[in-house]
Hints:
mainly alpha; Globin-like
Amino acid sequence: MSGDLVSLESLLRGRQSQILGTWRELILATYPEPTARFLEGVRDPFRDPVGHRLHEATEALLEGIVQGRPFHDLDDALDRVLRVRAIQAQPPSQALDFVFLLKRACRDRVGDLLDDASGAALDARLDGLARRAFDVYTSCREEIYEIRLRDVRRRVATMYERLTEGTVTP
Length: 170
């Protein structure tokens, strides 16, 4: 088994830049054309923080998969993408789709070189990443709901204070 993983790592390492390029193309294709062009063309973290975060995170995530790092070590990179996607008005399936696009990019670039064991090892790694991404996404959504709840409570408290002081009429 460890021999299969070593060969998988060397196989992924040899095509890492190709996989990364294909993965980013697939991710950008999920955005409307003007947005995709902007995300692809701007590398300035101040002019395009979303594109910059996406660029950095995809590189870190692929490197972690190639190295076979534990999934919790990839939380920061997942968070960089998912924190933005958790705010956007899209269903979780679309927010997490970028992880499944990595599987497609890997299969496109190294699928013909994988034997059954290394293909299963790759699928296990990417499925584990998807499960971890779901946990990170859920955590981001919970934070958003907590922020919204605190905001509503603050507004209600302010309104209540105004009502009891007589500065606002019902």
